[in-house]
Write a structure and sequence with these properties.
Largest sheet: none
Strand content: under 5%
Order of helices and strands: HHH
Shape: elongated
Helix content: 55-70%
């Protein structure tokens, strides 16, 4: 798909620029991004609902990623 090709080009460019030092492939970057999203959502909930929340709305592509939602 166009999105995947665009990501792979940017990934290769970042590696050439020295931003990514790992020799691992894009899967590692996707896993890191998923972890970041999950942690950011938890931190946001803590910051903006310090007393707790009764529900949380999840939307976008992340709702298909069970690792992000768990």
């Amino acid at each position: 798909s166009l999105r995947v090709r665009c990501f792979l080009r940017r990934f290769a460019s970042a590696r050439r620029a020295g931003v990514l030092h790992s020799e691992r492939g894009p899967e590692d970057l996707f896993a890191s991004a998923a972890e970041f999203v999950a942690r950011a959502a938890v931190q946001g909930a803590r910051d903006f609902a310090p007393g707790g929340a009764t529900w949380l709305v999840a939307c976008g592509g992340g709702v298909s990623n069970q690792r992000v939602l768990s």
